[in-house]
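Researcher: Sequence recovery benchmark, item below. Answer with residues only.
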């Protein structure tokens, strides 16, 4: 058995070690996504659109969708 498993993030294959988490998959897909996670501008969902916590352990073939909100959280809005 291989020590890695394929998962899919925004339709792109990412290889993770077995027991890898959603956060690990997203970070391998694009490190900038996880940088935005601190301000809650990033959402991680499964193939059905249900939220997936970053610490969720994935299974081989898992499908994740990741999006960054165009809205900034916190701070004053320049248009206000």
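Model:
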């Amino acid at each position: 058995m291989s020590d890695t498993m394929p998962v899919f993030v925004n339709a792109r294959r990412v290889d993770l070690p077995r027991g890898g988490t959603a956060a690990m998959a997203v970070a391998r897909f694009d490190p900038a996504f996880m940088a935005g996670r601190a301000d809650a501008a990033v959402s991680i969902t499964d193939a059905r659109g249900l939220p997936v916590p970053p610490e969720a352990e994935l299974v081989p073939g898992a499908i994740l969708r990741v999006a960054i909100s165009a809205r900034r959280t916190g701070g004053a809005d320049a248009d206000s």
